[in-house]
Structures are given as structure tokens and as C-alpha cells.
């Protein structure tokens, strides 16, 4: 049984996240379990998620799931904007709701890009990380 699509193709949050993710070397996008997943060999960012015990996709429909550096994870968890996502949380992933991640003029896309970069570096092949560093 295939999963229903859990995102809007015209979503402006997804559009901006897609620009950030697909600018990374070797990055691509696929829909898995109804959500956009950004990957090289392994997934490094997911758009949308749920928390453990709540399978309603609406509260975190506009969230990004990333795998932060282990050294940053504890500090990020102290920030109420970050939550442990269902399914991925036990493996070190965190979720940031973009609707609740507001700077004075909207989403802090620099922060999102840093989180995506860290997650990419944890999952991408060494060759692609070197290519990123050479830019």
C-alpha cells in the first residue's frame, strides 16, 4: 500500500528547503512515505513529520527533520523549537517546525541551511563532503 502525499507541491517552505538541499553536491529528492526526502546515498533531510504516539501529519507538516552534530544535539533539545520526531528520533534526528522558527522577517533560513549542512555532512559520502568544502 502506498502512502498518501503529505505535502503541497506549491508549499513555499518546501520550495525554499528544496533550494537549500538541492544546492548540495550530489543531492537529490524522492518522495518516501508520502514526504519529500533529500538524499545522496542516505537521507539527510525530510520535510514534514510526526512525534511519537501522534500520527496526525498536520502539526508538523511544515517541519524539517535533520541529523545534527552529536555535539549540538543536547543544546538543540533545550530549545523549545526542536522536538524529537517519531521513527527517526531514536537515531539522533531532530525536527524543527518552520512555522515556529521565526526571525523578525520570517523563517531563519540561515539557521535551516546550517542544520541541513550538518546533517548532509553526517550522511553524505566523503567525496561529496570534500566537493562541498572545495566550493
From TrEMBL:
Q: Name one Pfam family in it.
A: YjbR
The superkingdom of the source organism is Bacteria
Q: Write down the InterPro entries for this protein, in alphabetical order.
A: YjbR-like_sf (IPR038056), YjbR/MT2646/Rv2570-like (IPR058532)
Record's protein name: Phosphoribosylglycinamide formyltransferase
Amino acid at each position: 500500500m502506498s502512502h498518501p502525499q503529505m505535502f503541497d507541491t506549491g508549499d513555499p517552505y518546501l520550495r525554499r528547503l528544496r533550494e537549500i538541499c538541492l544546492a548540495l553536491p550530489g543531492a537529490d529528492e524522492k518522495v518516501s512515505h508520502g514526504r519529500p526526502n533529500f538524499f545522496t546515498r542516505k537521507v539527510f533531510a525530510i520535510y514534514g513529520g510526526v512525534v511519537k504516539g501522534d500520527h496526525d501529519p498536520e502539526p508538523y507538516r511544515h517541519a524539517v527533520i535533520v541529523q545534527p552534530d552529536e555535539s549540538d544535539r543536547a543544546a538543540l533539545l533545550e530549545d523549545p523549537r526542536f522536538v524529537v520526531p517519531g521513527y527517526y528520533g531514536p537515531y539522533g534526528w531532530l525536527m524543527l517546525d518552520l512555522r515556529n522558527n521565526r526571525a523578525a522577517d520570517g523563517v531563519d533560513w540561515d539557521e535551516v541551511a546550517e542544520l541541513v549542512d550538518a546533517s548532509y555532512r553526517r550522511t553524505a559520502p566523503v567525496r561529496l563532503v570534500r566537493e562541498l568544502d572545495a566550493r
